[in-house]
Amino acid sequence: MTAKSVQDVTALGQAARKASRKLARLSTEDKNRVLLNLAGLLRSDQAGVLSANEEDYQEAKAEGLDESLLDRLLLTGERLNGTADEVQRVAELPDPVGEVIETTTLPNGLIASRRRVPLGVVGSIYESRPNVTVDIFGLCLKSGNACILRGGKETIRSNTALVSLLRKALTEAGVTTDAVQFLDNPDRSLVDAMLKMNEYIDLLVPRGGASLVKFVAENATMPAVTGGIGVCHTYVDRAADLKMAVEIVHNAKVRRPSICNALDTVLVHAEIAADGLPLIAKKLTDAGVELHCDNRALSILGPDAPDAALPAGEDDWGKEFLSLTAAVKVVDSLDDALEHIETYGSGHSEAIITDDDSAANRFLDEVDAAVVYVNASTQFTDGGQFGLGAEVGISTQKFHARGPMGLKELTSYKWIIVGKGHVRP
């Protein structure tokens, strides 16, 4: 059904709610059959998806869409194969539904346990990244949830083609196609209606820029995961291995600059800045990165500073660049680095590079972020990399999930109480 009215959106919600009751009882074998079907289709039926994506990409480019968003929008055969691999990994993961979290025998003889159950219906509103369509569906299905998807208008053709594959995979496995509902009309009023569907949607996950996340947080009538905005720092400590630091900083910024866990700010301890900063700056600028440096960093780089090293402005601190741009600041101590991250960080991913265990442990203990690293690139903040198969999003809040959200984060639990004729006195 093409959603053309608020009534149509409500009908999608009703269909998803009905399907969720069936999915909650679906066997692990049936779930995995759907996922393996989908992985196969993503590898064998790429032509239609890539053709649709090319239309989306060219139209978005002609309309002046930002380069970072264009990169997120683009699908290739390699990327579709990678998505297929993620779907297959989800199939290989243990089914969380029915897992007994803990069991306790109470003093009165009652046996109390908690058992994982699906949330029910997960809604997602997202921008630019058509692979999200597959990731959310795969994780929702394996965790026994129906899903309602609304991608951005810039990927309407790509998402339509992908949803067709999702439904084909469901049909081939004999599972209801109502497991996935797709809001294929970009009319903003229908999104507003979706945000009011707390009767049908149990959790809403926004994936996109700060404005989208803020809009969902302020208008959703159901619980919503807020986060995904990544202002990510890498602090190069005075006890850092400089060769390691150069490589980690380069990877964190350059590997894929358009993702939310890409590095935004490099903090360098003053004691090693004279030796380390020129090495870091050269590696980054050789890769096309523009550096926005504080006065101390510019002074250390001196007359030999790369042309791409420019003075930083106050708005460069706490900015998610999503491009080949990074801010650089020299700090006098670990305390200063921690203070800067506390002030400007978004609670996403933060890293320290150091051989000092004491400094590393302080950083791990004191940095308030979903993911904190020692001697590793922040580019690893990813559900697939963390063994979750994929992710529905990255939460920077603390309830009910934090960091990459996988299968277990799409479940709740219920108490199971077993007695032998117990009555309460």
Describe this structure in words.
The chain has 14 helices and 16 strands. It has 425 residues and is of the alpha/beta class. It folds into 2 domains: 6-225 and 405-418, Aldehyde Dehydrogenase, Chain A, domain 1 (3-Layer(aba) Sandwich); 232-380, Aldehyde Dehydrogenase, Chain A, domain 2 (3-Layer(aba) Sandwich). A 7-stranded parallel beta sheet has the order 10-9-11-8-7-12-13, sandwiched between helices. Helix 2 (28-44) packs antiparallel against helix 5.
The radius of gyration over CA amounts to: 24 Å
CATH topology of the largest domain: Aldehyde Dehydrogenase, Chain A, domain 1
Q: CATH homologous superfamily of the largest domain, by name?
A: Aldehyde Dehydrogenase, Chain A, domain 1
- Low-confidence blocks of residues: none
Number of strands: 16
What is the percent of helical residues?
A: 40-55%
Which shape, going by the Cα principal axes?
Answer: globular
Annotate the secondary structure layout.
Blueprint: H1 6-23, H2 28-44, H3 46-62, H4 67-73, H5 77-92, E1 100-105, E2 111-118, E3 121-126, H6 131-142, E4 146-150, H7 156-172, E5 180-182, H8 188-195, E6 203-207, H9 210-219, E7 232-236, H10 242-254, E8 263-269, H11 270-286, E9 290-293, H12 295-301, E10 309-311, E11 325-331, H13 334-344, E12 349-353, H14 357-366, E13 371-374, E14 394-395, E15 403-404, E16 411-418
Parallel strand pairs: 3-4, 3-6, 4-5, 7-8, 7-12, 8-11, 9-10, 9-11, 12-13
Antiparallel strand pairs: 1-2, 2-16, 14-15
Helix pairs in contact: 1-8, 2-5, 2-7, 3-7, 5-6, 6-7, 10-11
